[in-house]
Structures are given as C-alpha cells and as structure tokens.
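Hi D.,

Good news: the full-assembly prediction came through. Inputs first.
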Amino acid sequence: MWIDPSRPAERALVTHGHADHARSGHKAVWATPETLAIMALRYGTDTGTPMPYGDGFEANGVKISFHPAGHVLGSAQILLEHAGERVLVTGDYKRGFDPTCAPFEAVACDILITEATFGLPVFTHPPIEDEIAKLLAARDAHVDGCILIGAYALGKAQRVIAELRRAGYDAPIYIHGAMQKMCDLYAAHDVPLGDLILATGLAKAEMKGAIVIAPPSAMHDRWAQRLPDPITAMASGWMRVRQRARQRNVELPLVISDHADWTELTETLLELRPTETWITHGRTDALGRWCELHQLKARALDLVGREDEDES
Amino acid sequence: MQAFAALIDGLIYTRSRDQKVRLIADYFRTTPDPDRGWALAALAGTLSIATVKSAAIRAMAEERFDPMLFRMSRDYVGDTAETVALMWPDVSADAVAPTVSEVIDLLNSTSRLRAPDLLAELMDRLDANGRYALLKLATGGMRVGISARLAKTAFGQAFALSVDDVEEVWHALRPPYAELFAWGEGKSERPDPADSAFFRPFMLAHPLEDGTVHLDAFAAEWKWDGIRIQIASTGGETRLFSRGGDEVTAAFPEIASAFNSIGVVDGELLVRGDVQGGEAASFNALQQRLGRKNVTAAMQAEYPVFVRLYDILFDGTQDVRSQPWSARRERLEYFAATLDTVRFDLSAIIEARDFDHLAEMRAAARAAAIEGVMLKRRDSPYLAGRKVGHWYKWKREPLVADCVMMYAQRGSGKRSSYYSDYTFGCWTPDGALLPVGKAYSGFSDAELKWLDRFVRNNTVARFGPVREVEKSLVLEVAFDAVHESKRHKSGIAMRFPRISRLRRDKPADEADTIAALRAMIG
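Then the structure:
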C-alpha cells in the first residue's frame, strides 16, 4: 500500500487531487469523497473507496484514517496507527483560513512526515484579505483594461474567486476554459463561486474592467492575446520574492499560497512535538536545520516525481 | 515610509516608463515635505547616508539569524537587503512606522558603529515592504530602473513644469528640495539657479530617409559613433551630461578637469584609437567606460577619452542658441582653440562639391567610429529636441547578414504573450551554429504574429523562459557595425542589430558564416 504513489500502484492512499499526488492508473484508491470526485473529473476514473474526514479502515493490522489538511477541497492528512505508534503524513497543508475547504486539524503523532514547500524563513504569507484588497485596488485603477490572474486550476483559482466574493466583489469573473469543470465541481460541493463566465471567444470590449483567471501556463500564452490590455497578476506564495515575480513578468504579485508558510511549518512542529520528523519535498535542508536548532529529531525524505503546482 | 515603500514596489513591477512617471508624480503630489524631497533624492541618486554600508546590514543579520538559515535564504532570494527584510520578525500591531525623514535624520545623526542597532530599531517598526524600502534607502541604489532625468520628469509632470525648467534650477538645490516643491506648488518664486552648471536639452536630428538637401543651405559633418555629451561649465563647476540629461561627470573625470573655459558645448565622447593621437576607436572600446559610476586610473589610461565638439550653446555666459549654425560654428572654432588638444578636438566639416559627391564620400567612409553623415542647416538656431527641417542624420547603409534563429524569449509589457526577442547565429567551418546577436525589432505586427507561431510550433527545448527552436528559419539581420567581442563565443558582436526581413524562402544551411561576418569588421 502506497501514499500518493507517483507510479500506478495496486493500492493507493491519496492525500489530495493535485497531479503530483493523485495519479491515474491505480488499481484501488482510498481518498476523501471530494478527492475521488476530482480524480474522476481529471482521469475519468470512478473507482475508489471514499474516506470522509475522521473515517478509517484497517489493513494488515494498521489503522488508516483521513483528517483535514486545509490545502484544497478534499485534501487530507493520513494517519497510520500500529501497535500504539502513530505516523502522520501531512501531504500538502496550510493553517490559514480558506473558505473553499475544511480547516487543518492538528493530529497528535509520534512520527510526522511533513511537507516543506515554503520551508525557508523568508516565506511568510500575508493575510489574504490584504492581497485581495491589493487586487481590487489595481482593478479599480485599471478599468479600461483587465486584470489577468495566473492561478492553479485546482484550489488556488477557486480560493481567489471565493475570497473576492467574500470581499464583496459580485461582478462576473471571467475564467479560462481549463478551469470551468473544476469550478463547477467546487460549486457542487457547496463552495459558491458566484457568476463565472468563460473568457474564450468573447470580444475584448466585453472584458474591460474585468478580473480574468487562467492557469499560469496560459498567462503568457497566445490565449492571453485576446484580453484587453491586461495587467498580469500571479497568485502564488513564490511572489513573496521580488526577483521571482519579475522573472515571470508579473506586474501584480499576489502572495497567496495553499501551502504552510515558514511560521506555520515551524509552529505546527512545536505544537505536535513529534518524537521524529521526516521532511519531504521543498526545502528539506532549511527546515531540517531549524529542527536541529530546536532539538527536534528530523531527517530529509527524498521523494521522486514531485513538482510544485504553482510552477506548472 | 509606507507610501514610499508602496512607490518602490510599484516601480519594481511596472515596466512602462509612462506608468512609472505617473506613479512618482502621484507620490510627489500626495506626500508632504520633507518626505517627498528625500524620496526625490533617493530616486535621482543624490541621497547618500554615510553611516550605513551594506556591511552593516550583513552584521545586523548575522547577529539575529542562524548563519546557515540566512545563507540558504540569501542564496534563494539573491539580494541581501531583501532577504533580511523578509526574514525579519513581523511587526507588532501597535508599532508606529517611521516617516522617511525620520529615518534619514536618525541615520544621518548616528555613527557608523551605532547604525546597525538604529537600523534594527527602525526595522521593528515596519512591515516587510517597508523594511525592504528602508534598507534600500539606507544603502542607496534603489534599483527601480529610474534615471535622475526620469525622476525630474516625474517632478515636472506632478506640478505642470517642463523637465528643462527643473534642470535649470536643479544643481543649485540640495535634498530634501523644499524650495523646489514650494516652487512646484506655486507657493514661492522660482529658485535662483545661481552659479550652477546645468543641462540644456540637446538638438536632435531626423533621419534623411530618401531625401536630398542642397549643400549651399546645409553643412555636412561626420556622425561619430560614441556617446553624445554636453559639457556645461560656470568656471566654478563643470558637469557632463548624457543625451538623456543624466549627469556622467564622475565617469569621465579627465574631461571635466581638462575643460578650462566657461560655456556649454555639445559633442561626441570617443575613445582614442590604438595609436596615441590617432583616430577614434570603435564604440566597442567606449563601452568599457560606460555604466561606471567611478573610474580607476587604470581605466583612464587604457581607454583614453576625448570629446569631438559639434556645437556651442553658451559662449562664456552668453546664450548663443538663437544664432544661426554658421555663426555658432565660427564661435566654436575660436572656443575650441583654447582647449586642451588631448581631450578636445573639432568635428570637421566635410568638404564635398555637391550632394552626389557627399554620397560617394559617405559610401567610401569605412572608419569604425563613423556612423554616417550629419546634415545641418546653416541658418538653424540650436533648438531643443527634434524639429523638422533643421538637422538630418544620414546613416551609413546598414550591413546585413543572413542568420538562423536559435532561441526566442517573450517580450515584456504588451508583448509579454509574444515570443518577440530572438537570438540568432551563423555557421562555423565545422557546421555548427554560434550565436552572433539578439534582436527584438524591425518586424511588423503581422510578422510578429507569424514569428510567435513559428517559435511555438518549432520549440525543441526550454530553458526557463527561453525556448530553443528548430534551426530552420533564416532571418536577414541589419546592423550598423560588427566588432570583436570576448563576451561572445563567436568572438564577434553586432551593433544595433534588427530583423530586416524574414527569409522563409532560404534554407538554413545557406545562411552566412561567422567568417563572412568577421570580414565585415570595420
């Protein structure tokens, strides 16, 4: 039995629907109902045992249960219990507020296997309200053009839309075709996203003053040539670093991430105080160094086939 | 400080010049004195805080952060000030952010020893963007792509003044420029420019295109391929200005100190050729001296510079700009005769029988430092900017070569969704392509669309933002000159390359060779 296997496996436990965690071709899958729905949408699979948060099952004497990770809709941490020892795999997680998914749950454990995507002390994600306010101010100052936001099609896009709605923005939001089905799926899971219009095939004039959301790969693609004088924004935790934003030709960086920032990563370690921590993808070196400074036993766990969704 | 930090961030992410000017102008209009004056000084490069050096920032970081975590972070971010600003613990909610002037006053009144602690206290009162702006302000070098001239332009735009009005008083004033802002807001008289040397706008030329002129009415000079420079001296001080109006005195101190007359002259800054007293060297040699804030004695000796004079704007304190070119030329000849011949000479008038004869001479001119011919109407006053009918530039026919597109990169701003920057190469004897240049202009919008599609459909590899393409498309590249370059693997570099034609008809293996390009070195 594997967790988030990168190759087709007999039996797979899947933490969440992002492509580097949920792959197609597994014989048997255990995941939350939302994650199974996302996999069904992406891969056309309809197999899998739904595991709502808190539910579990036993295999070979190991009790396996799923707990909210706060990363994207349906994202889970997986807890393995055997002979009184508890191993927790966080998958990707965050502690910050997110109206589109269940909040992270702190689960006591002996061994913690944590992500470290933003595992450098320079990464602090500011309150999302500040970033949305920045976005709306830019939009108000640029009504003759539009704001094009690069955001990953699963999770980030819906979160940005939901936060815009929470901030009182009720105009239609224009989306790239690659996001439509995922937005429909979120809406069907009681995440209201308001009025969404497909940006494809519209006249430039119709999108003046609009907010348009597309996957990062489409942002500088020919697709974007149809938009009226866009300001390119990007919603990503990497936008915290100026050079990173400039390298990607971003004019309006929005520091919005679905991963734990440095503070969340370290505070979670202090809160859970596992006897041992294994650090997976991201800055294993820096978070490992921090553990050493805080006398927490830790080691790096190198995984293959990992990529960051913001960088796709 | 928050408004200043927002301005700095705005300037970092904005690529359009006009938009940058607007951001600065808005800031000047809405920010009180003396903060805006210090900001103007920071942007124009006239602010210097002696107590803070970048070592102070490293010292501050090493005291507070684990050295390993700091190094890892610094390696990732690539900028010490930004790393420290981002790693610094977050500001408490009740902290009161300092103003720009408070920061400057505190740092100016401390010692170098005390500065890191003081800086740290200020850091504690600011959010991440504020901390970044603070560190950049304290160490100088904002790195926001703003020249002094552009900062003055923005000031002019904020208060409906022309940038040349601002220039006239600029050098008589000091940060935080309270008098300047008071004048801008109409609250006081124009400041007295006193005895200061300042920039006057250059007179510029139109391309001659296919026209002709009569040599009775127009004088001809060589167009030298250096950098256009203005020397202004009051006797008390001498300043050098680039074509954009930015002061470059510190980069060419030997010129400023050799200029021992009072007046304002216009000329071309050039590097002497191989033999002392010889002809001007190519632009490539001059490039070694450009972009340096200060220059070593070794550089001065290796690349000796001189100014070839074109025109005179002020003879002593007399403004002669309204006089006809012919009268100014006479004055210039007198004026130049008193100058040090090592550092100054006169741009000679080309003696041609008629226009056809001039055309022959232009075609025959092969000196590396000659870019073409200038035609100046004999009765023209010295006019600011580019006015029709007075001065023409008649560049040498460009050289052309057929090159093969190798890599492409997206442009910025409006072109950010188009692959519009192309690197192209020529063939080596053993059948390999080596890059010889990069161009991003010369094609029409329709051709850009076609090129963009070509790049996307023929990509063979990607390196970050760069796409390597199938080596199949021949681009005819026009360029003004080609010269030796140690920086390029091909050993040559082009001056002003642009795409002149898409040679979709031509097979790539019939494109030019490196050897053929090398033969064009002037």
